[in-house]
Fold this sequence. Notes:
Helix 3 (79-90) packs across helix 4. The mean pLDDT is 96. This protein has two domains: 2-247 and 454-476, Aldehyde Dehydrogenase, Chain A, domain 1, CATH 3.40.605; 251-435, Aldehyde Dehydrogenase, Chain A, domain 2 (3-Layer(aba) Sandwich), CATH 3.40.309. The chain is globular and about 85 Å long. Strand 9, helix 8 (179-190) and strand 10 (198-200) form a beta-alpha-beta unit. By secondary structure, it is α/β, with parallel strands linked by helices. The longest helix is centred in the N-terminal third of the chain and has 18 residues, at 94-111. It has a seven-stranded mixed β-sheet with strand order 15-16-17-14-13-19-20, sandwiched between helices. Strands 10-9-8-11-12-22 form a six-stranded mixed β-sheet, sandwiched between helices. The chain has helices spanning 39-52, 61-77, 79-90, 94-111, 114-117, 153-156, 159-164, 179-190, 205-213, 226-238, 261-273, 293-304, 325-340, 376-379, 395-404, 418-427, 463-469, and strands spanning 2-4, 6-8, 11-13, 19-24, 29-35, 122-127, 130-138, 141-145, 168-172, 198-200, 219-223, 242-246, 251-255, 283-289, 344-347, 366-369, 386-392, 407-408, 410-414, 432-435, 451-452, 455-456, 471-479.
Amino acid sequence: MKKIQNYIHGKLQCFSNNEQSVFDPSTGEEISKVILSNLDDFNAAIKSSINSQKEWPNITPLKRSRIISKYKTLIESNIEELANLVCKEHGKTLDDAKGSITRGLEVIEFACGIPHLLKGEFSQNVGTSIDSWSVRQPLGVCAGITPFNFPAMVPMWMYPLSIACGNSFILKPSEKDPSCSIKLAELFSEAGLPDGVFNVINGDKNIVDLILNSRDISAISFVGSTPVAKYIYEKSASNFKRVQALGGAKNHLIVMPDANIEQAVDGIIGAAYGSAGERCMAVSVAVAVGSIADELVEKINIKAQTLKVAPWTDPESDMGPVISKEQKDKIEDYISKGIEEGAKLIADGRNYKIQGYENGYFVGPSLFDNVTKEMSIYKEEIFGPVLSVVRTKDYDEAISLVNEHAYGNGTSVYTSDGEVARHFTSNAKIGMVGVNVPIPVPMAFHSFGGWKQSLFGDHSMHGMEGIHFYTKLKTVTSRWPKSIQAGPEFIMPTN
């Protein structure tokens, strides 16, 4: 049985004897063991990260950029292997896995521009013969705690920028699918990254708490559920750490009566059921406005029935299993609760079986109609292939649903009316907004982050928000007088 260790100071190692099983979600079979690290493992990672900080910040941004550029090339040449590692442990389709790695690569491409991105500002003669300028300097040791649903992309949204800024970085990936993170670390070493700048430590909540309580770690990046994001935020703040903690979502997609309904249905199908709904940007609520509701529900249902649910090894698979038996049971419980609360179940994905994969964690595409905002399936994040359709009489009622929900990660509107689109983009109280785009995930040179209970902390991820998060600002005011001035000044300096 394969044992997945930590990657500390450029090599695989571990002290702990505690292990946890890693499963193939398509078959339900145990495929490896992952180390659940202990205090000795954690201390080794901390020591390595601190030691690397003696030299890495002094490496010029241009030299850092060249290592990151080589790293990008290595990832591109190893994308097939990386995608296979993701698929085996997560279950998503091969194309989806490759797509997620590509979205991570975009951040690495952005990080290659770090010599430009770290440029400060300069003002000459802010006072008589006085100049002032700003610089952005690294924080020290940073850490990332990442979720199971994107074992490549989400870590790549964190550590490349942090390292480019001159920090060392400790990654704690999900123990459900840790192999890809180890391979990413090995490739970074191959690219020339000095040992200890990037360490990967596996583990459970014990390691998370050690990270949160460590005085040697300056900043925490997190992506996961809202209850855990709140915990990360509160603990980090109480320990004087900078923190960005991205939480859950309940993303609404509004379909106006004038929308191109075929485009809207295709967008909803891909966004609701892609990756078995295990995306923080998945559409889980379709808001049907006015007369379009009946046709929209019918077309979604018809298209959902054509989706092929199969293991990732099937090249025709549209969606694979969910991550675990516990997640499968949770999703199916939500479907049962939706029925109990009065929603109309149009498509039932419970008890989905595939010949030869009867023990896999498959849930078929599920669809509810006549969902109301009082129902659990509307209020809570299900994180599975379950779509709720809410009917509203007009646009005002639809945008009110979006703005009144506790989550504020992403939202979209499908319409042919520019006035509606403009109003929606200006007035939706959501961090990421799409117009005729179902999953409005920003490119790497913009920033990713929600509002309300979808983000705790002041900074979103990647883009310039990421640069600012992983650096601290220093402003210098300088004068070089020819002779010593007459004496002390007791007033606030002015021009």
